[in-house]
Structures are given as structure tokens and as C-alpha cells.
Amino acid sequence: MLIGNKSFLCMTEEEHRRVRKLTAAPINGLDALTAYLGFIDQTVVSTLGRWSEAGKEIEFLTELRRMTFEIIVKIFMSGADDQTMRTLEGSYTDLNLAIRAMAIDLPGFAYHRALKARKKLVSVLQGVLDERRAASAGRFAGTNMDMMDRLIEVKDEYGRMLEDDDIIDILIMYLNAGHESSGHITMWATVLMQENPEVLARAKAEQEEIMRSIPPTQKGLAVKDFRKMEYLSQVIDETLRIINVSFLAFRQATRDVDVNGYLIPKGWTVQLWYRSVHIDPRVYPDPHKFNPSRWEGPPPRAGTFLPFGLGTRLCPGNDLAKLEISVFLHHFLLGYKLTRTNPKCGTIYLPHPKPVDNCLAKITKVSDGY
């Protein structure tokens, strides 16, 4: 009801395969990542500078979510004005608070507010879509197409195009997944590194080495620099293992399935608990220890690392998410420090794991980078 019947979460296998094929390359392809990297890099640099220059406490998580939301809206709807951005951001806040809430449609309940938020999201996105369609003549001749443009124009092998409700539900899902998870994992990776000085030192040394390899004529980071961030990638994977933003998912069996001797009949809905796999000591020795080095060597066996899903349902934006997180951590490691106001504050777990105070902290500039 909240994400939409035409979103990836609710599509049949056949339709999921079709729409994923139509949308994956513009999100995760090399050309797409190259096109997005410059804007992500500039946004991160200016945001970190603004936080540090303000010299005051911020809710680190809240501000990270705002930054990642600005990035994802730019990628999907490059012409969105400030009013549209604020409306979408506020609606997504209400929507996310109800993702794992009881579905009680009465005033005062999170689900009731979220249904209203979804109606507002649909209205805003439909308005932007109508404007795009009205101005489409000659619009797509160049290369400066954002994701909404591509969704309007894309055709499958049979010449079928996406309807408005298809595009809106796809956008609602992508815009949400593209900022909420990235913001949370970026915060936790930053916090966990600072709590583990040896990890912080090694990650920083890697980023300094990458900076030394960048030619003076190159402006900003390139995708080839991102590919060199091997240890930082391990830091992110370890954060994803320990901090499960989506700690469970629901799936309906389309046929009878045997799971470790238990029969799941066709039509039954089951819960998949990602968290239990990620802290299983038989799979990950000393599972509660933050140890990025565990990711050196061969990848984990299938079905034991599920932050982006699995198989045909693998998140189509996983490379974009890791790029965004990596760029932020790169610049943070080279020149900034996080000082939490309440480092021992508790954690709440719904709808996503986060500090009770949203990681209230000061961001201090400690150098001008390498």
C-alpha cells in the first residue's frame, strides 16, 4: 500500500525481470556511475565544508539523509525546484516511519500519516511527469537525460513503454531506497571507524594513497579511483553486515518449497531474517566484532550476505549506493572528524537502526586533505 503495487517489491517475477532490465543500466552501469560521480563529489565536498564552518552541533544522520536525498533527486529528477524537494523530503519522512508499523488507518497512527504522504508523493510526481511529457518534443535528443526522462522514453523488445503509474511507483521506490539506506550506512560506517582507530587509520592511509595517484590535471574523483578503494569497500560491507537497515523481508511462495526439512506451501507468506544470517558465528567468526579484514579473500558463500537482497531480486542500485557512501567516506577520512555529543546513547531499531539522538555531533575540519 505504501510503496505501490507497481514497485519492484510487488511485481510478479516476469514483470520484475522486464522492468529491472529497462532500468538497471541507467542506475548501475559504468556510464551512469561516471555521469553521477561528479555531482556526488561536489555535493559531498560542499556539504562537509558547510557543516564544519557552521561550528555547531548537527543531527548527523538527519543531515546525511538530507544530503543523500538531494543527490538521488538530482539523479532522477534533475530539474526539481526547492519547493518540490522539500515536499518530497517531508513526505518520505512520514512514509518511512510507517514501513514497519502496524497498518492502522486511524488519525494519530504512523500508517495513517504515511498513506497521506503517499498520496502527496503521487501527486507531486504526477505533476512533474505531466510537465515532462508536455515538454518532451526534442527533449531527448541530447545526452543530459535524467532517470525520469529515461523511464518516459524506454521501450522493451516488444516496443512496450511504461505507463504513468509504473513510472511513479518505480520513482517512489528508487528515491526512497536511494537516500534512506545510504544515509544510515554512511553514518554507521563513520561512527564504527572512529570507534575502531586501527580501522580508521588503515582506511585513511588507503585514501591518501589514492590521492597521491591522481594526476594534477584531474578534477575530482574518477570511477577508476573508486575502484581502488578496496579496504574502504570492506569497511562498507562489514557495516552492512552488522547494521541491517532492512533486517527482514516478506516473500510469498509461488510453489511448494522445502527449507531445511520444513515445507513452505505455495501461497504462504514467509519472513526472511537477514540479521540472523549476518551474526551467525558458523558463518562469521566473532560476529559482533567490527572487522573489515574478514572480507579479504573469496566472497562469502551464496545466501550468507544479504544487505542488497539476492539473485534476481538483488537491489538494482547497489553499485550507486556504494559509490555514494564511498565518496563521502573518502572526503571525511582525508579532512574531518566526528565528535558525538552522546556517544553512549541508546539505539532504536524501527523503522531502521539508529541512535536515539540521530547521532548528534559536531563535524570538525582537521586538515585540507592529503
From TrEMBL:
Q: What keywords tag this UniProt record?
A: Heme, Iron, Metal-binding, Monooxygenase, Oxidoreductase
GO cellular component terms given for this protein: endoplasmic reticulum
Biological process, per Gene Ontology: brassinosteroid biosynthetic process; brassinosteroid homeostasis; sterol metabolic process
Q: Which pathway is this protein engaged in? A: Plant hormone biosynthesis; Hormone biosynthesis
MF annotations from Gene Ontology: ent-kaurenoic acid monooxygenase activity; heme binding; iron ion binding
Q: Which family does it belong to?
A: Belongs to the cytochrome P450 family.
Q: Under what name is this protein listed?
A: Ent-kaurenoic acid oxidase
Identify the species of origin: Lolium multiflorum
